[in-house]
Write a structure and sequence with these properties.
about 20% helix
Amino acid sequence: MAKSQQTFSKREKEKKRQKKREEKLKKKEARKAEAKEGDGGIPFAYVDKFGNLTDAPPEPSDKDEIDASEIVLGIPQKVEEEFDPIRNGKVAFFDHSKGFGFIMDIETQEKHFVHVSGLNDEINENDKVTFELEKGQKGMNAVRVNLQK
């Protein structure tokens, strides 16, 4: 006599699947019955001119006329600020053997890298200097550095 191919665990899994199917079918039928009993759908919500939700439609006389040509799409244009390219600063650190250092801007208190190739005069630490900023590989670099007189 041949043994049954279904084990106990297979039968239990099949029972669980069948039970889930029945529950799902019952929920589906309950939703259908609820929709038939209900008032026929989702109520409408309107938005007034202040952005608040209301149940009444807005009055056509309350609408504001907007000129479509005044609407700006995208990012607003950046306004270029004119500033003096020559900045004042103080040498915070300078290593003559390696040929670089840092200058602290007096106005913004930011430190800017300076290389010996950007120097017009010989500088030492704590000297007051004038310089210009130029975009470098890792940020703004001080170039055309002169001692203040």
